[in-house]
Amino acid sequence: MLSRREAMAIVSGACLALGVAAVPGTARSQATLRVAMTAADIPDYTGAPDQGYEGYRFLGYTLYDTLALWDLSSSDAVSDIYPGLASGWEITDDPTVWSFTLREGVSFHDGCPWNADAFLWNVARVKDETAPQYNARHAGMQRSSVVNVAAVEKTGEYAVEITTPRPVSMLPYELAQFFQISPCKVEELGYDYEKYRADPAGTGPYRFESVVSHERITLARNADYWNPERIPQHDLLELIPMPEASTRAAALLSGQVDFIEAPSPDTIPRLKGSGMQIITVPYPHNWDYMLNEAMPPFDNKLVRQAANYAVNRDEIVEMLQGVAAPAYQSLIESQPWYGDPVVYNYDPDKAGALLEEAGCSPCAIKVGISTSGSGQMQPLPMNELVKEQLEAAGFEVELVPMDWNALIGVFYGGGKDSEFHAINFSMAPLDPVQGIMKRWMTSYQTPNCCNWGMHSNAEIDALGDEAMKTFDLDKQKELFTRMNEISVEEAMELYIVHDLNPRALAPHVKGFVQAQNWFQDLTPITIEK
Q1: Nearest-angstrom CA–CA distance, 46 and 77
Q2: Rounded Cα–Cα distance for residues 309 and 348 (Å)
Q3: Are 386 and 344 in contact (CB under 8 A)?
Q4: Cβ contacts of 388 within 8 Å, gap of 6 or more
């Protein structure tokens, strides 16, 4: 894990290498970075983002901070966390109690002090239904980040102890997604979160500036940000929802925006020809089908394996003109828990034989898909091709398209009472908590988190329980690797492709470092016009 000093050195070095000023107050011309998101609407910006992880990327880590933050300063290796609003943490003699030292000298954008009282207040915001600041929507969106927080005790003005229900060795990774909002602001407004929406306050590198509903939100540079290495190198950040890939490309080409997410593959040659920068980096993000084991036919391992043998991943990569990579599991090879699991190479005959053996031919499935959204790449043509491949092997596929936020609602509802046998729901397995434990362990079945498919495997659960009480990193790696290998052998998902995270930037956009992470840091970007 990086220390704060190491993290600062990395970021500072990156700034120098890119020619970006690292010292606040350097003379600069007024500059606005305009970003076209794939989201259909502006994500919630009150401290519990929606619109999937795109909301976290653009309106979570910009306005707000967490106790631990992701080091997004390099594209050469998979990211890890480093101290954020907590300057350090350690497990105590009791393996169920963590001691966190909070960072001193930090204020929220409204001047409210960051301290232990502010952290306790934020925990109650999502955990204590009797607290005046409790917000049911925030609880629904942030519950998974604090599911293992049983109690919090203030031990000093800048110190807290967090008690977990059992040993939880990966707690700092979970808290890396728990955003801290200003208690003073919410209390001043009489706990009215709609009024808070008009002027939210976090501690992040950007401040809220203005919003035009359904059109754009503007954030301003926080010149007083506590980490001088991450004070934005531009004055304003405009975030604009544009769910249609062709619209995003046209906006970049016409100069309406400077930076677009997920350009469609067929527009990339034209964008390159117009001088745009096309950036791709492998990162932990998979485009797959979550399979529902709570009902037939995917409660049968043979059917799950058949689906994996039926997909021609190379054909999908070819359709995407190389801006994806074949996926044979959720993780990417650079992650330390990848292991050596079974590989489901394309074999439609074997898929058909497995369906016959399972007594499911034709095998009818209903799949929930989105029309666009966070990390969904080019969902309509991709899903049509997957449907064609599955049906060639003996499946009968009904695709049910919906808005991305509606599909998120299906995900949060869990598979147990769902009408869907599968959902095309992209995820970012950044760490073993999000990528392995919360996806496969029985204890994380909905509503506790992210096990939508209601998977339950005794061996995975036992390994996960052991990993949770193991603080030896090498032993953790061994346990997580085995858990991942079992999940693949059990075909707990339909693995399809990994996203290469394509982005297109105007020539005048400088200093962006695309991290091997779903989250990205926009603060080093300069606009040179």
Answers
A1: 31
A2: 6
A3: no
A4: none
**229: DSSP letter:** G
23 HSE (CA, 13 A, CB side) = 3
CA 13 to chain centre: 26
Place 427 in a pLDDT band, splitting at 50, 70 and 90: confident
- Token look-up 């942030």 returns 142
DSSP letter at 435 equals I
| DSSP letter assigned to residue 228 | G
Could you report how far apart the first and last alpha carbons of the chain are, in Å? Answer: 38
3-state secondary structure of 438: helix
Q: Cis link prior to 297 (omega < 30° from 0)? A: yes
Residue 83: its H or E element: strand 81-83
| pLDDT number for residue 337 | 94
Report how far residue 298's alpha carbon sits from residue 306's, in angstroms, rounded to the nearest whole number.
Answer: 10
CB atoms within 10 A of CB 524: 24
Sign of CA dihedral 278, 73, 525, 283: positive
Residues for the chain: how many in total? 529
Reading the block at residue 94, the tokens are 């009791």
pLDDT at 376: 80
Residue position matching structure tokens 């362990």: 441
Query: How many other C-beta atoms lie within 10 A of the C-beta of residue 457?
Result: 19
The residue whose two tokens read 């950007």 is 206
* Amino acid symbol at 432: P
Q: How far apart are CA 228 and CA 69, in angstroms?
A: 15
Q: What is the distance, to the nearest Å, from the Cα of residue 417 to the centroid of all Cα atoms in its chain?
A: 25
Question: 3-class DSSP state for residue 206?
Answer: strand
R_g of the chain computed on alpha carbons: 23
Looking only at the bridges linking them, the beta strands covering 422-424 and 363-370 are parallel
Helix, strand or coil, per DSSP, at residue 444: helix
Centre a 10 Å sphere on the Cβ of residue 131 and count the other Cβ atoms it contains: 15
- For 161, phi then psi, to 5°, come to -115, 130
- The residue behind tokens 């809220």 is 208
Q: What is the per-residue pLDDT for 2?
A: 38
Task: Specify the pTM.
Answer: 0.82
Taking a C-beta distance cutoff of 8 angstroms, is the pair 358, 297 a contact? yes
